Amino acid sequence: MRARLVVFPIKGRNWCFTKSVQPSLSDSSTAQQTPSTLRELWTTIFSSNPKSSTSKPELLIDFGVNKMDKAWKGLEKAPEGSFKNKIHGLGLRLLSRIKPSEMFLKSIPKDVTSVEVIYPSSLNARLVRRRLRHIAMRGSVIHKNYFYGSVTLLPLTAVFTVLPLPNIPFFWILFRTYSNWRAFKGSEKLLELVSDGSQTSKSTTVNEDERDDSVTNLKKAFSLRVLQPSKELEELLHRGQEEDGLSKCGILDICKAFDLDRNDVLKYRAST
User: Fold this and answer.
1) What does the alpha-carbon distance between residue 63 and residue 46 come to, in Å, rounded to a whole number?
2) Mind listing the GO biological process terms from this record (predicted)?
């Protein structure tokens, strides 16, 4: 499975990193494998099926995420002015505070085997790869710490379940735990795909076997990523450029041309 990433500057050193919105077969197959009821979950976890590609912890996480998605969709359909509608509005305000870099790292699936990186033709390919490695390395450290921090807060927020109102703090911390875990795993996968498999030896006395292994590893590493300069993206950037950076209309044109999530990309512009 190959993921298509689009990288371009918003304003100065503030770059946008996003994944193209493309329906994948793996996502549909994962949705079909995830149990929909507790009984199915119990049967799947304790069944000895060696062909199952999903681990038991991942099944629990996917089951919980599906339940949260269904509950969120129920809040979206709530009548205007109702209590559920107000909870949905609060959730939207909380979600708007999530950094766009976290959304990008979360979008990197666990089963991706290679990436195609599209960037403006005026940028240097080495610089693009270096910026991708930086956001992946930084994300692996930050979201790992945030994940452990969220886990420690879960027991504290669970105390509020005794109240007659919905335990919003608990569900928010539960979501942040899952979100940071996904971003941490996505950063690890991205770092694996954009990094070289091995470093070339600096010594002048390198035997032939070591040289062959080094060349093989480098070929394998480069096969995991494709750096694709785009003249179309370069033209769209010039067309939408303003004094304070890339305009909103320019961003929407790029999102339309490369199948990007407009809300995620606009968050980068708001963070400048």
Assistant:
1) 15
2) potassium ion transport; proton transmembrane transport
For 233, other C-beta atoms within 10 Å of its C-beta total: 22
Q: Is residue 144 part of a domain?
A: yes
Place of tokens 């870099």: 101
Distance in angstroms between the alpha carbons of the first and the last residue of the chain: 33
pTM of the predicted structure, to 2 decimals: 0.77
* 70 residue type, one letter: K
Question: How many domains would you assign to the chain?
Answer: 1
234 near 122, Cβ under 8 Å?
Answer: yes
The domain of 252 spans 2-24+78-198+208-270
CB 129, CB 118: distance < 8 Å: no
* Contact (CB, 8 A) for 139 and 101: yes
Write phi, then psi, for 127 (nearest 5 degrees): -65, -40
For residue 95, is it within any domain? yes
Q: Which residues is 15 bridged to in the sheet?
A: 9
Residue 53 forms part of a structural domain? no
Positive or negative, the Cα torsion across 105, 110, 112, 114? positive
Here the tokens at position 119 are: 């960037």
Q: What tens digit of pLDDT does each residue of 157-182 get?
A: 888 777 777 778 888 888 898 899 99
Q: CA-to-CA distance for 97 and 91, rounded, in angstroms?
A: 10
pLDDT in tens, 74-96: 777 888 888 778 888 888 888 88
Q: Outline where DSSP puts E strands in the chain.
A: 2-11, 14-19, 114-120, 225-230, 241-242, 245-246
Domain-embedded: residue 265: yes
From the list 155, 201, 207, the residue with the least C-alpha distance to 177 is 155
